Amino acid sequence: MAHQAWSEVEEEILLTNLTSLVDQGVWQAENGFHPGYLGVLENQMRVCFLEAGIKENHIEGNIKKWNRDYFYLDAILQIPEFGWNPNENKLVVENDVWNEFVRVSNFEFVYNFILNLL
Q1: How many beta carbons lie within 10 A of that of residue 78, not counting itself?
Q2: Using CA atoms, how far apart are residues 72 and 59, in angstroms rounded to an integer?
Q3: What is the dihedral sign for C-alpha 27, 32, 35, 36?
Q4: Angle at 89 between CA 7 and CA 72, to 5 degrees
Q5: For residues 87 and 63, what is the distance between their CA atoms, to the nearest angstrom?
Q6: Residue of 107, 3, 19 whose CA lies nearest to 62
Q7: Where does the pLDDT of residue 116 fall: very low under 50, low under 70, confident under 90, or very high at 90 and above?
Q8: CA torsion, ordered 61, 10, 3, 21, to nearest 10 deg
Q9: In whole angstroms, what is the distance from residue 49 CA to residue 31 CA?
Q10: Is residue 42 a contact partner of residue 98, using CB atoms and an 8 Å limit?
Q11: Rounded Cα gap, residues 65 and 72, in angstroms
C-alpha cells in the first residue's frame, strides 16, 4: 500500500519523532542527520500507523516539503505587511494585501512578488 497524503496526526507524529532524534544527539551530523535516520523514522511511523505504508521516501519527501514551505513562509514574513500570530500559528495580514498577494502568486512568481514588496 502506497502512502498518499499526510494527515495532520501523521505529520505531528513525524515531527515528534524527528525532534526526538535531534534530542538524542546520536543521529545529528554536521549538515543534517547521519545515514540511516530515515529508516529509524520509518520504523517509528510503522508502530503508530501500521496500515499507512509510510516509507523512507515518503518521509524524505515530506521533510523536503517542510523545508520548501519554511523557505516561502520565511520570505513572506520578510514583507512588512505580513506578520505571525504565535498563539494560533497563523499569518496575519490585511485582506487587501493578501488578495493582491494571492492574485500574483503562483509558485513561479511568489519570490519575485516578495522581492518587489521589500
Answers
A1: 12
A2: 20
A3: positive
A4: 80
A5: 24
A6: 3
A7: low
A8: 50
A9: 29
A10: no
A11: 11
Measured distance CA(75)–CA(69) in Å, rounded: 10
Q: Which amino acid is located at 89 in the chain?
A: N
One-character DSSP codes across 27-75: SEETTEE-TTHHHHHHHHHHHH-TTT---HHHHHHHHHHHHHHHHHHHH
Q: pTM, whole model, 2 decimals?
A: 0.73
Radius of gyration, alpha carbons of the chain: 18
Predicted confidence (pLDDT) per residue in 20-79, tens digit: 998 988 888 888 888 999 999 999 999 999 888 999 999 999 999 888 878 878 888 988
Handedness of CA 40, 42, 47, 48 (dihedral sign): positive
Q: Is the dihedral of CA 7, 13, 17, 23 positive or negative?
A: positive
DSSP letter for each residue of 11-36: HHHHHHHHHHHHHH-SSEETTEE-TT
pLDDT at 99 over 60: yes
Instruction: Say if residue 48 is exposed, middle or buried (CB neighbours under 10 Å; 0-12, 13-18, 19+).
Output: middle
